[in-house]
Amino acid sequence: MKPQDPFEKIAMPGVKNVIVVASGKGGVGKSTVSANLAVALAREGYKTALFDADLYGPSAPIFFGLQDQKPEVIKEGEHEQIIPIEKYGVKIMSIGFFILSKKSLIWRGPAATAGLVQLLSTTQWGETDFLIIDFPPGTGDIQLTTIQKLNLTGAILVTTPQHIALADAQKAADMFHTPLIQVPVLGVVENMSYFTPTQHPDEKYYLFGQGGGEKLAHQLGVPLLAKIPLVADVCELSDSGKTIFSSADHLIGDQFQQLAQQVS
Ligand code: ADP
């Protein structure tokens, strides 16, 4: 029997660009950036898809208000294909559509990686200009294997301004540059850069310090793509299934639109 090639790429015919959104640790806003970048790219007119690979905390079903949805599975000859669910012009697939949140925690190591690879390769992406992948946080086996198995266009690193988050983000950046793998880091997004009260959009309070995102971008020799403020209603909106973009004039809507223009 032919040994399996660990570097054999997942075939995703029709998908032109694959961008991974990664972070050193959880809770920095990686899923928020992934979801809103995908919606912003769709608004720019690109055929866009989002793959939520954060199997320990899949949030796309919540952010897009799709908790009760189950993707349709169709048979094409011998093979099964899963149809992504479309919302705000984005084709969405999430491990969260298939597993109850508590059960996801027992999925570990090789089983988790195999599950992710299978879901990515059996999803019917069709013609897609940009596939955004929301990675699990950190630098574990799942991330490394997925990087090996995908032809990635680039990676975006999300961090908060604190030093501890920056050290983790640097480690996350390192996993895209190994002797065998070279994935371009497209840039850094600093999230929760400052607090802006919704009623006073001109006021800025730097709760977690300043300059962290710039420092990381400088260290990596990549651009700082965006500085997204901490906004009181983002949490509320995302938890109720309305991403920031459902309110067209939201004060950070423009920032995500500019981010989409920079990466496209
Ligand atoms: P991660 O994917 O890194 O774990 P999430 O995107 O799930 O992080 O964000 C964690 C929590 O913080 C979510 O409840 C989200 O709504 C909230 N959040 C993320 N970015 C912001 C922001 N800029 N302003 C306010 N809340 C935010």
TrEMBL record:
<feature type="binding site">
    <location>
        <begin position="24"/>
        <end position="31"/>
    </location>
    <ligand>
        <name>ATP</name>
    </ligand>
</feature>
<comment type="similarity">
    <text>Belongs to the Mrp/NBP35 ATP-binding proteins family.</text>
</comment>
<dbReference type="GO" id="GO:0016887">
    <property type="term" value="F:ATP hydrolysis activity"/>
</dbReference>
<dbReference type="InterPro" id="IPR033756">
    <property type="entry name" value="YlxH/NBP35"/>
</dbReference>
<protein>
    <recommendedName>
        <fullName>Iron-sulfur cluster carrier protein</fullName>
    </recommendedName>
</protein>
<dbReference type="GO" id="GO:0046872">
    <property type="term" value="F:metal ion binding"/>
</dbReference>
<comment type="subunit">
    <text>Homodimer.</text>
</comment>
<keyword id="KW-0479">Metal-binding</keyword>
<keyword id="KW-0411">Iron-sulfur</keyword>
<keyword id="KW-0067">ATP-binding</keyword>
<keyword id="KW-0547">Nucleotide-binding</keyword>
<dbReference type="GO" id="GO:0005524">
    <property type="term" value="F:ATP binding"/>
</dbReference>
<dbReference type="GO" id="GO:0140663">
    <property type="term" value="F:ATP-dependent FeS chaperone activity"/>
</dbReference>
<dbReference type="InterPro" id="IPR019591">
    <property type="entry name" value="Mrp/NBP35_ATP-bd"/>
</dbReference>
<keyword id="KW-0408">Iron</keyword>
<dbReference type="GO" id="GO:0051539">
    <property type="term" value="F:4 iron, 4 sulfur cluster binding"/>
</dbReference>
<dbReference type="InterPro" id="IPR027417">
    <property type="entry name" value="P-loop_NTPase"/>
</dbReference>
<dbReference type="Pfam" id="PF10609">
    <property type="entry name" value="ParA"/>
</dbReference>
<dbReference type="GO" id="GO:0016226">
    <property type="term" value="P:iron-sulfur cluster assembly"/>
</dbReference>
<keyword id="KW-0378">Hydrolase</keyword>
<dbReference type="InterPro" id="IPR044304">
    <property type="entry name" value="NUBPL-like"/>
</dbReference>
<comment type="function">
    <text>Binds and transfers iron-sulfur (Fe-S) clusters to target apoproteins. Can hydrolyze ATP.</text>
</comment>
